[in-house]
Amino acid sequence: MMRSMPHQVTASLAFTFCVLTAHVAQAQAPTISHLQPSAVQPGATVDLVLVGDNLVGASSLWTSFPCKVTLAPGIEKNGQLKDRVTFRLEVPADQTVSVQGIRVATDKGTSSLKLLLVDDLPTAVDNGNNKSVANAQHVTLPIAIDGVAEPESYDYYKITGKAGQRFSAEVVAGRLGSTLDPVIRLLDAAGKRELLYSDDEGGIAPDCRLTYKFPTDGDYLLEIRDIRYQGSGTHRYRLRLGDFPILTSPYPTGAQLGSQSKLAFAGVSAADVPAIDFKAPAEPLLERTWIGAKYAGGQGSVFLPLVLSTSPEVVEAEPNDKPEQSTVVMLPTAISGKFETAKDRDYFQFEGKKGQRHLFRGVTRSLGSPSDLFLRMFKADGGQVAEAEDSGTAEGALNFTFPEDGIYRLAVEDLHRRGGPQHVYRIEAAPYQPGFSLQLTDGEKKDQFLETVSAPRGGVFRVRVVCARRDFNDPIELLVQGAGEGVKLSGNKIDTGKNETVMLVTLPEALEQNQARVIQIVGKAKIGDKEVLVTASTGDALRKLFANNPYPPPQLTSLLGLGIGPVFPDFFALKVPTPAVLPQWVGVGSVKVVAERKDKFAEAISLAVEGLPENIKAEVKPIEKGKNDIEIKLTGPVELPEGEHKFRITGNGTHQLQPRTFVLGEVVLRVIKPLAVSIAPAGPLATGAKQKVKVTITRYGENKEPVTLILKNLPTGVTGPDNLTIPGDKNELEFELTAVAEAAVGKIENLQVAATGKLKDQMITVESAPVALDVRKP
Amino acid sequence: MNFNRTLLTLAVSLSLAGLARAEEAKQQSGDFKLEPIQIGTPERIEVLPPAIKLDTNRRQMRILVSGFYAGGLTQDLTRVAELSSSDPKVAAVHGGIVFPVGDGKAEITVKVGGKESKLPVEVLNFAKADPLPFEFGVLVALNKANCSTGACHGSPSGKGGFRLSLRGYDPVLDQETLIREVFNRRTNVMNPDASLLLQKPLMQVPHGGGRRLGKDSVSHQMLRTWIAEGMQLDTATTPRCVKVEVFPKTRVLERPAHTQQLLVLATFADGTVRDITRVACYSSSDEAVATVDDEGFVIGHDRGETAVLVRYMEHMETSYLMFLKNIENFQWTNPPEANFVDKLVFDKLKKMQILPSDIAGEEEFVRRVYLDVIGLLPTPEEAQKFLADTSPDKRNKLIDELLERPEYAEFWSLRWGDLLRVNNKQVTSAGVHKFRRWILAQIRDNKPYDQFVRELLTAAGSTFDNPPANYFRTAGETNDCTETTSQVFLGIRIQCAKCHNHPFERWTQDNYYGIGAFFNRVQRKKTDNPEEMVVWIARGGEITQPRTGKQMKPWMPLKGDADLPAEDDRREALMTWLTSADNPFFPQAEVNRLWGYLIGRGIVEPVDDFRASNPPSNEPLLAALSAEFVKSGFDRKHILKTILKSRTYQLSSKKNDFNKDDVKYFSHARTRLLGAEQLLDAICQVTGVSEKYAGLPAGTRATQLPSPDVNNYFLKVFGQPPREMACACERSSESNLSQALQMINGPLVHGKLRDGNNRLQNLIKAKKTDAEIIEELYLAALARKPTPEEVGEAAKYVSGQPDRTKALEDVCWAMLNAKEFLFQH
């Protein structure tokens, strides 16, 4: 079933921050350690403080429920502090009590999901000084206290009750992602006598709850601690105290889409809670929703999940404890039932057609019921034909093909033969459908489940989409929803028979930072003649994130947080240290391209050359991984005229998934003579003395001919040797200049040498650059 | 602290290690020897069996003669009775045993002490061949010769390459071993005397076990006969023994009577009753009281009781014998009886001529009852309040009050935590707290014991949601369930029967797996939480006896096999039987444990080792407490109150001349070292400095610890169990040198004595005088005020030291090292 995109609200602020490198930016994505308060009330305007880290510039809050959000005004430096930011939430009055989620965004990214309660009880705060009976914090009912457990300690709350007054206490901790494993005890006023105790409450464990009727007027104490006496900033709780019912689930446990139904309730307080009218939405926006329930005139609600189904809802008809008393149903259907007493066994009867394959799926603990189902299928004659294998954490399923036409009976019982008002169950019976489900894990680390992905603005993120197939082998196309126009995908297909792909998603530039948002990854496939869309689940990631919550809110388990950080910074540059040269009559030259790498970027850089004269070609290779330069070979015709040309070198690299292009424009290519010469006197030349001079030539191409030298611009009285020639196998010549005693003293700046050689029958003469010669008196 | 404290050590236990052992040591005088029987004039004699039928020439029958005297005395006259046969051609008498001579009928006349009795004897089938059977012949003989014991060839790997099944529990294996192995050299049918089976025990060839048989021994004769007869094997029609009886079943012998011949009769499946006295095996539960020889002849050595265990293959029977003697100057003082406990204890003491100690003084009582009920010392204020109370029922009131205190549940849940193996390794760190909390609530709420056990033994579901399911986590597989349940809730150590029939008890391998059938369907599965486990019960599945391959039905002691509905949780049937009126094991195991905790020794000791060869020291008391427990609805507090309010519990630990040797009849309070947690808490109480345990709130006491995983060295040294065994014996009560060093030099004691905010420092800061401080220390540590001499000696010491604070620390240190502090008394 497709799920809807959640409501998204953003408050924008304009802050400017320096740009940091991408991986730093991801590390600096905002985090939320806890919320103050941990709940918002329907119809109230609440200033919600997000306490965490990297919150500077937080300006956008995503909520999983419709809600108007602004950055709370009147708070000094709100939005500029690293460790907290306050948003003002205007919660609609008709918002159902429920567990919801939020994410906050900065220009560095988006936080992981944080759970928030929509609660109709007012909030008080643990005063931190309530560690003993004597210092119990006095609170007035109804109330919900946001507290934090400290190591090796207890918190005590004092409440005042009237004789006969109904009282409930419930700890919402694991269900809000806390690491606390809470235990509560209701004590007498002196703290000596334990009246009630609750630890792991089946169906909501490790959370706990109790209900009590005060026997006398007076004070009572509520003690709360972690079962192991652990405590920390993550050991938080919301302790709800008041007059709310303790229920397991609505009854029936689901409502058919588009139907109007009367919902009663199952649980220890069910008898005192009036049924409610419920109108199910017509469209399958979500598989589950939340509903609230309260006593008639009660001051607080309990929040319960309700299944929205496509099948007709049926409730067991007691007595159906024996095969002959079976409740008759028609398939497909969704059955709600209760194990009223220990050892209760319920039978359901239906017709089966030979070869029909049906899936009978049990649902209990994810609804809040403690039951662990044991399912068996019997033929009409009583012979057992199938039994659900108990596979640990599953809720029980029986995948059954009717062997022949006839009447069949499904026997449902608690695996542990328990019973009681809280033992409600749901059986969803439907024809078996081939299909698939999708999970998201990290592109590199297969076992790291994802609930948030990050990318630089306009950048790329990578996700591994893992597929579990059910008798379906065809390809699955993957889509990304919620990331706007212009998203580019690669690897977005799970091939026939394959079970995973690593998909790269390139975000459009238009997708801005400072926007908390969620996306969905959807698998599309044709199964039979139907096109099927399946949203990838983040459930496992959320179970890991909220270790004490095996059943994270179902409306949040298909939403992938998308954080957008700053544009990914440059991580390399190119330069050409010396101009490219292409000697005449040689036809071959080169240019050296040097990469300046940053941020530990070591991958290969592919290069491209553009803008060369048409008749000059470049032989381009990449700068290899771990290398910093490459020589590009240039070739052209031998008759090229001397001259200078300009061209571009473009480099492309990818670092931390992010692609980058660097363009080196205006690279100079010189077409030069194939011979070059330079002259260098060893020092000043004294009159009447000699001084060494060195002439160096550069030969291009296959030039092995002797080169003759002629000295030019010698000062008066200074002479060099006659017939200066550099042999074909040498490239330099050292000789002496001689100054007569009367030689002109002074420094000249234009001493040159002309070199003449032969290449491919062409006589080539070049002159050196002028150099200085200082003639001095000795 | 300084070295001058050695001056105070006169009152200190430097020899701590030896003290407890000294208290435990038996002091049997052993003044009885085999003496001639003083026949006297019996009022009547009784002869067993009343009639004799010898149905083959292999049968024989011992005659047991008892004399009954005026005043209710009884004496065994077997060895002095004159026996004669009316027809020596039919039956002959030798050494008190009737042997067949030829088919016919005769009469045996028994004469002794002027009395005469006649019994008929009939001999049948004298000429008919009666080959010696294998199981109840050969294996019996090997048993009798101790060849098939665990220490010899009955060990799992045998000895010297020769392996027999333990006590002959596996005849098929033994047939193979004796006849086929080592190229048939063990048995030589052509020349029986050349059989290794005979030559080795006769030491005709070297034998590691030495000489085990004489040529005239019954075992040798039987083995040789079997070989000579062609080593015949049992057939389907070979009758097996179905019942064994021993005579007398019980007997009280008062000096000069001090010997007893036993007669052991076996009933076979063919209806024959055979005398197996000479081939049965015997052992005495207390050889200081009496010993028994291979012929079943018991000699009493000292006053006391013993159970003589008679073994014949898998059959076990017991004869309970009491030996009495007159103690010079003994006169029963008729101490008052508070309830039936006293009556039954005093009945026994009176019979044994042991005088109970006087009732404990108020100071002795208040300290004892606090330690026993809540594991803590009374505070000085509590002690003084009790001592100042003049009401006659103040002891009972205090008992009632203590049993309602939260510390009671905490202390007793510590003990159950030991038995149920509550530790991190077994039940995980979160599980420890959840399971301990459940146990604590059961004890605090005084949940009827049967319900408590029912919740444990029928637990299912998550170990987190339903903590008693941890029972099946610690007992992680069927055999562990069988053994733990038997030991903890029935007091039966059945472990041996896992691999073979129990060598010293009646429990067989079939029984073991029959109990296992109740637990075989218990399954375990994981959840998303790595610390959690879900226990569930499969709707089917049977257990197989590994030796026989036989599928076992659920089996209950005293009841036999149970046919249960196919899908039922069989554990419920087990619970129904456990708590049924005709099951003595269940209530007895618990009342005995409660008694043991309070008195320091069980009526059956060890408290979880009930067996015929380990009889209760006061069977009527155990039975009465057990009946009271059942009658009260398995109310443990009621039993605790019954014991605590008895005079027996409140007897002084000071012994008198008549009970100084008594260690098992409860004639005086038993002195014992405080338990590890009690002791550490007591040190904390006296010094006023609590101990900090990692991961637990400040102020947590040792007796509140959910598990031993706090890794406190002091506690370990003093015997805190790691909780790896479901046995009370895991908690060590032994003294050792490390304990002494901890108390004398250990950092824990030192640190608390030097703590700047301890009791002593606060008293000094409050400007208390030396005498006032000394008095408070005495009250805190010993629950009594010091005598003037004690105050004087301590004050003198303090005034003689240059540093008053250090001197007072010395006094406090000496208090902590005094026996009176370290011991429960």
Chain-wise SSE layout:
The complex is a heterodimer of chains A (778) and B (825).
Chain A: H1 22-27, E1 31-36, E2 39-40, E3 45-53, E4 60-63, E5 68-71, E6 84-90, E7 98-106, E8 109-110, E9 114-118, E10 123-125, E11 137-138, E12 143-148, E13 155-161, E14 166-172, E15 182-187, E16 194-198, E17 208-213, E18 218-226, E19 236-242, E20 249-251, E21 254-256, E22 260-266, E23 276-279, E24 288-293, E25 302-309, E26 313-315, E27 327-328, E28 333-338, E29 345-352, E30 357-363, E31 373-379, E32 384-387, E33 397-401, E34 406-414, E35 424-431, E36 435-442, E37 452-456, E38 460-470, E39 476-481, E40 488-490, E41 493-494, E42 500-506, E43 517-527, E44 530-535, H2 539-545, E45 560-565, E46 572-575, E47 580-583, E48 588-597, E49 606-610, E50 617-619, E51 629-635, E52 643-655, E53 658-672, E54 675-681, E55 685-686, E56 690-699, E57 707-712, E58 718-719, E59 724-726, E60 732-739, E61 746-759, E62 762-767, E63 771-776
Parallel strand pairs in A: 2-9, 10-12, 11-13, 21-25, 26-28, 27-29, 37-45, 47-53, 55-63
Antiparallel strand pairs in A: 1-3, 3-6, 4-7, 5-6, 7-8, 7-9, 12-19, 13-18, 14-17, 14-19, 15-16, 15-18, 20-22, 22-23, 24-25, 28-35, 29-34, 30-33, 30-35, 31-32, 31-34, 36-38, 38-42, 39-41, 39-43, 40-42, 43-44, 43-45, 46-48, 48-51, 49-52, 50-51, 52-53, 54-56, 56-60, 57-59, 57-61, 58-60, 61-62, 61-63
Chain B: H1 16-24, E1 44-48, E2 52-54, E3 61-62, E4 64-68, E5 74-76, E6 82-85, E7 91-94, E8 97-100, E9 104-112, E10 115-123, H2 134-144, H3 171-180, H4 196-199, H5 218-228, E11 241-247, E12 250-254, E13 259-261, E14 263-268, E15 273-275, E16 281-284, E17 290-292, E18 297-300, E19 304-312, E20 315-324, H6 340-352, H7 362-374, H8 380-388, H9 394-403, H10 406-419, H11 424-427, H12 429-444, H13 449-457, E21 461-462, H14 471-474, H15 478-490, H16 509-516, E22 522-526, E23 533-537, E24 543-544, E25 551-552, E26 555-556, E27 560-561, H17 570-578, H18 585-599, H19 619-631, H20 636-644, E28 672-673, H21 676-687, H22 713-717, H23 737-745, H24 747-754, H25 759-765, H26 770-782, H27 788-799, H28 804-817, H29 819-822, E29 823-824
Parallel strand pairs in B: 2-10, 12-20
Antiparallel strand pairs in B: 1-4, 3-8, 4-5, 6-9, 7-8, 9-10, 11-14, 13-18, 14-15, 16-19, 17-18, 19-20, 21-23, 22-23, 24-25, 26-27, 28-29
Helix pairs in contact in B: 2-5, 6-19, 7-9, 8-26, 10-12, 13-17, 15-16, 18-19, 18-20, 23-24, 26-27, 26-28, 27-28
